[in-house]
Amino acid sequence: MASTLDRSAVQSRVNVWKMAQEQLDDVARLIGLDEGVHAYLREAKRVLQVSVPVRMDDGRLQMFEGFRVQHNMSRGPGKGGIRFHPDVTLDEVKALAMWMTWKCALVNIPFGGAKGGVICDPKAMSERELERLTRRFTSEISIIIGPEKDIPAPDVYTTPQIMAWIMDTFSMQHGYSVAGVVTGKPVSIGGSLGRDKATARGCLYVVDEAMREIGKERSGARVAVQGFGNAGMHAADLMDAAGYQIVAVSDSRGGVANDAGLDIEGLIAYKARTGSVVGFKGGEALDNKAVLEYDCDVLVPAALEKVITPENAPRVRAKIIAEAANGPTLPDADDILYDRGIMVLPDILANAGGVTVSYFEWVQDLQNNFWEEDEINDRLRRKMVRAFTETLEAAKHHRVNMRRGAYAVAIDRVAEATMSRGLYP
């Protein structure tokens, strides 16, 4: 019990915005970043904090708090998801916006970084309440979003339906359909084929590259997935189909493991029926934190931030960690994993498939010209493989871990764009 309390204390003390800034500081020293540009990149360009009044189903007027942060837009419009979660904070949204800046730069798409969030519990709200919340929040942030300004997308507890409400609200304000204001929409209103599995598919592509780099075959390689939501579930499904063996998964309620391999198709159906993987008969019950330390070749953290800490990093047994979630590894834990020879595929690389296909969706919306799914997946694979290769080359050049390598590539690109544009006025 003491160790669990210690881990919780460490996690609660870590401010993710300070963590994101420290990651920038670390790599700025590594690449010799100009001091003025460094100071500029440490801060968010724009922070919008809004009050969101919502009429609830019982007639009460309830107030919610929401945010939209634009970190840097030197390379193009802001891009980043909107999350609905009771634990959303402004500092979290600022950190996520900064990470989006680096992510877009790493995969070399012409976006800057942005992020949004509303403090709410969507699980306790009806669909009508969620719609009213979404539409009012959209109205409040509409002054800074748009297809040429800032393009939101789904994130934690937001869905294609929520994106449809955002698109419709913004369109009603403008008097015509503006499909490109948001990505992750249903295909029927300008969404892209392949978007629902894009984050997971991109993760699979870079894991494949990492396996080749360490000289290991993917057939039969053991995989543990922490977080069985959109990214984690699809990652497990795609990796299972590709020949990996999924031996452990978990969600917020608990986990399940089977050393002979889990029936992923059956597990997905079970989760759809019950809302959790807990109680699935095809494996043994497992604490959801224990999944992080499970005996496997590849660990996929696909839940929330700050789950791999200096306390549990020495017990991680995976050879590769693919961060399908944002910010799952604390900086001190990064160093421990690197010293142990574990390759961490950082979030700005491993989960960049989502924003990459979001970029494809935006391009298709602007052109009114839509692509087949095979073409989208092929374009995604090329983007992800190139980003992995550039990250690995930078890591080897600077003799650092993959996270610092990825940041070196991304920060250099953003810095170059920032200096090229200069300051106005």
CATH topology of the domain at 198-350: Rossmann fold
The CATH class of the domain at 198-350 is Alpha Beta
Q: Order of strands side by side in the largest beta sheet?
A: 9-8-7-6-10-11-12
Number of helices: 14
Regions with little confidence, pLDDT below 50 for 5+ residues: 1-12
Largest sheet: 7 strands, mixed
**Which word captures the global form?**
globular
Class from helix and strand fractions: alpha/beta
Amino-to-carboxy terminus distance: 57 Å
CATH architecture of the domain at 198-350: 3-Layer(aba) Sandwich
SS elements, strand count: 12
pLDDT averaged residue by residue: 94
Radius of gyration: 21 Å
CATH superfamily of the domain at 198-350: NAD(P)-binding Rossmann-like Domain
Order of helices and strands: HHHEEEHEHEHHEHEEHEEEHEHHHH
List the helices and strands and how they pair.
Elements: H1 2-13, H2 16-31, H3 35-41, E1 46-55, E2 61-72, E3 78-85, H4 90-106, E4 112-119, H5 127-141, E5 150-154, H6 160-174, H7 198-213, E6 222-226, H8 230-241, E7 245-251, E8 254-257, H9 264-274, E9 284-286, E10 298-301, E11 320-322, H10 331-339, E12 343-345, H11 347-350, H12 353-367, H13 373-398, H14 402-421
Parallel strand pairs: 3-4, 3-5, 6-7, 6-10, 10-11, 11-12
Antiparallel strand pairs: 1-2, 2-4, 7-8, 8-9
